Predict the structure of Homologous-pairing protein 2 homolog.
Amino acid sequence: MSKDAKAVVLNYMTRENRPFGLNDIVAALQKSHGKAAVSKAVDELVLENSLVEKVNGKQRVFVVPQDKLPQPDSDELKDLDNEIINLSNDLQKLKEQVRTAESDLKVVQSSLSLEEAIERNAIVESKIEEIRKSIAAYGSGVKITPEEFTKAHEKQKAAVSEWRKRKRLAMDIVDAIAEGYPKSRKQLMEDIGIETDEDRELSLASFV
């Protein structure tokens, strides 16, 4: 019997430190030794008490006796405990990140769709255009009563507030889509036909 085959089998079983059937051991070591050599090595290692054989029905399972494995010293055990604590903390952080991501996803899913945001943005722009015409009328010599001025001013404030809210919502949706889009954010907006305030030469600041 080749001592080399026995050493290879024992090293493998010690390194893996878990039960294996004979076929599993043969499959793992087939590149270096054939089935006959591995089978004979396993039998001899069992006779030498270097491996323990467990029989479960027709299945033979082999494992290294645990009392023959090197025992970690106290420092090594302490290092392992610290590693477990660090890994547990990392796992907790990852779970928190997953919960946050799921929460963000629910917010996006419950928000307006991109098409709805575009449609509402068009409505707001229409209102803004009406206000611009009203503002232009102020300087055209048209007489406006204080009541009409107050009413127009309130409409302007409401429209600007709606404009700001819808713009932020639309951009939030665009940003959410852009995270998984293969192109740039600007290209995404061009691809789906979204026009910005700048494209229309509009500015919130000019209406505040």
